[in-house]
Write a structure and sequence with these properties.
Elements lengths: L2 H7 L6 E3 L4 E4 L4 H10 L3 E7 L5 E6 L1 H5 L2 H18 L6 E5 L4 H11 L2 E7 L6 E2 L11 E9 L3 H12 L3 E10 L11 E9 L8 H4 L13
Parallel strand pairs: 5-6, 5-8, 8-9, 9-10
Antiparallel strand pairs: 1-2, 2-10, 3-4, 6-7
The protein binds zinc ion.
Length: 223
Amino acid sequence: MCAVLARARGRRGVHPSIRCDGIVTFVTPQAESILELFRSTGAYLQGHFRLTSGLHSQEYLQSALVLQHPAAAEKLGRLLAESIRELAPGRIGLVVSPALGGLIVGHEVARALGTRFIFLEREAASGKMQLRRGFTMGPGEATVVIEDVITTGGTTVDVIEVLRAAGANVVAAGSIIDRSGGHADVGVPRVALVTMQVAAHYPETCPLCQRGIPVVKPGSRPV
Ligand code: ZN
């Protein structure tokens, strides 16, 4: 049993579907059908990728490729909205996402919840999240934060900070994919449709590098 599998089996209440050479998926009831949606739209990339961390991996989920299909985006938003409702049963007034990655899924979650949808942007010079374009929120308005993919949760945390400073009551956060293996803590109840941990290698010990396979950044088209 590989170390990742051993860790996964140690988690309560999850039933991991695992390949020791690839992605670990903690299977929620809908996780497998979500991954199938990624596969069928070419968003489940197989190849040799350099992650933001600098580590190399042979699999990558490019959510933009599934969200380019409005029907798929609507389905993902609806499922995420259902999970959010379980997490935060009270009235929700607002969905907020960070641009650009969270825009489409956040919009679809808001549609399913019947709320407004607004977004935050990073200011170019400082890199700080900002509320712009005249977007406002009511005092104490129950708000959820939606991203497409969470890796460390840092972006969601930045968004929550801005919203709280503006008077919002952030009641939950959600993403389609959680790449933290469930470990990301954003300070509010959080849910993801698929929770996974990507098996990754240091470049020096990467088996794909050793086989001479060119590495690409996710977002670039793999060979
Ligand atoms: Zn490599």
